[in-house]
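Before a colleague's protein record goes any further, I have to sign it off. Thanks in advance; the entry in question is below:
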Amino acid sequence: MAVGRDFYGVFSADNDPDPANFPNHVAYLRFADFTTHQLFADAAHTIPVPTSIDPFFFHVTEPPAYQYAAKFVCGKTDEDEAEHGKGLLADSLYFTTLNLHNPGETSATAKLKFALAAPLGQSGAISPFTDVSLSADQVTEIDCTQVRKLLNIANDRLLDGFSVLETDFHLDLVSVYSAGHHGKLETFGIERVPERKQ
């Protein structure tokens, strides 16, 4: 059964708890030991349940058609670290602004999240999605204030990562980068972000 972007269904299969049979994972109403491939009726795994054919419920959500991924750099570097070559970037105050335009003749919707980079291969924070809505030919601006708000980071430390926008509409996304000292502009750049199909 399909409802909007969501597809729901039920199928019958062997209830053997073998991960090879369920590459997208599975959750049982019984207690499962995926190492020994055995189901149990109790949490202590003392009452085994014999193999049988059981019904399985599944739910799949179709992703939006297009995705845009734009780099962001926000905040001030540590001056001492930058001078000694230990920082991520040269000593400066960095800004990123994303300009999002709906070139269509009808309203467009999208969802936006921010993924924060972390050093040494660690996983950085990822914000929840927030909804974006644009009327025909409307433009909106996304800046460092929104990045910090959605990532729930109040201080002005340097943030480095990606803005990820997902939508079913063809949009124009342009990144504007600037940096400087004491309120004076020292570098400025613009980059058009290409869309990619999901």
Summary: The helical segments are 79-83, 144-151. DSSP finds two helices and 15 strands in the chain. The radius of gyration is 24 Å. The longest strand covers residues 66-76.
